[in-house]
Specification:
The structure is a homodimer. Chain A is an all-alpha fold. Helices cover 71% and strands 0% of the residues of chain A. Chain A has 9 helices and no strands. The interface between A and B is medium-sized, with 34 and 34 residues. The first copy, chain A, binds a DNA duplex through helix 2 and helix 3.
DNA sequence: ATCCGTAAGATACGGACCGTATCTTGTTGG
DNA sequence: CCAACAAGATACGGTCCGTATCTTACGGAT
């Protein structure tokens, strides 16, 4: 912590030390009280070093969060649409847990004001899951014959993620029961009504 | 603005003047840059007067928002479940528009940290709509025979509001098409699959 | 009509943090 | 081995915080 050594870190080593400090500070004081000064002190460096990398708290926090999020290329094939959806939502939960409700809301709040930041946010947090959902869930279900591609409107396509996100932003915790009710009481019924055999 | 008069406002008159100032300041600089000092200056008063009423930006903003939100006791009976849902979601939109995406996210972010504030937030923003939905939408649909009460799980009950909220928090704007797709591609199908005749 | 309690309004404060400029000094690539 | 570059330290003016202190208008009670 109190970096008093002679040696001067650079490049990767410094970068990682800073990101670790951001994370520790975040865990300790939460995003709303995360400050450049606090992070600099904890990382044993100074504010200008941080400002050379990120122009705001939000960008710094996003870089930190992204570096800690699992980004698998796919999810295991469970053999059924229901199982695959649950598996994807479980991955989503593990990612949301890392950021936490408050930080996620605050990030979204600041990003909602800044188109550039907003784009970064979507790329980092939203799009990856949607891609996985398309490839590893809907794709397989179509191959299995559980659903037909034409049934999948844009809204249905996003539905599982939308519902879990809402639950998380509003309540902050996601139990297995919540995920199950989303899948069994909304997602699958909505698909069935359009002719799916699930 | 530059309150230089001799007269000294009190009670209701002062309260309203302050809330108006909060609103104007909010419109001009947004919630993220809303400050006690800015509001005090605009209202022609001083910080202590504000702190005597609210202990934080968030509480102040919430009081302001609540005072400007329409809170009808009911919504018109359109004759069909679909029409009633759309009517309720339209009311919801008009309320969300008042607060705005950024402010809503920021309020939620700060409320998510503070149980007391969180409760206030839910009472002011969430519960009223849910009650309306129960009474004026599901209630009527059951009376009409469109759905049966047993079909309505807790999740389905909240579904329309959840989906609109998600859309608003993520994208900030709610078009008629979005509301229509929510109702026609998710809510009604999910109900139908459970035996509703809608 | 007057008195008194209450709250308005003004001012000032230490403190946190911002965002930037300046400077020194390791480190590293050529 | 040297020059360029970035790390790291320090300091600055500025904004806003949250609170304490003080004066003074108002409004209700006698």
């Amino acid at each position: 912590m109190g970096r008093r050594t002679v040696s001067r870190r650079r490049g990767e080593e410094l970068e990682q030390a800073i990101l670790d400090a951001v994370w520790d500070e975040f865990q300790e004081v939460g995003f709303l009280r995360l400050t450049f000064e606090g992070v600099a002190k904890r990382a044993g460096t100074s504010k200008p070093v941080l400002y050379r990398r990120w122009s705001s708290r939000v960008e710094m926090m996003m870089a930190c969060a992204v570096s800690r999020m699992p980004r698998p290329d796919s999810i295991p094939d469970t053999g059924s649409l229901r199982g695959d959806i649950v598996a994807l939502l479980t991955l989503m939960r593990s990612r949301l847990r890392i950021i936490g409700q408050t930080a996620m809301l605050a990030l979204l709040a600041e990003a909602s004001n800044d188109p550039e930041l907003r784009q970064k946010f979507f790329r980092a947090v939203v799009n990856h899951l949607l891609d996985l959902l398309d490839m590893a869930v809907w794709g397989r279900a179509i191959d299995r014959g559980e659903i037909r591609g034409e049934q999948l409107t844009e809204r249905l396509r996003r539905l599982p993620i939308d519902l879990v996100r809402n639950e998380f932003l509003l309540f902050g915790d996601l139990t297995d029961e919540v995920v199950a009710s989303i899948v069994d009481e909304v997602v699958l019924p909505a698909l069935r009504d359009r002719g799916a055999s699930v």
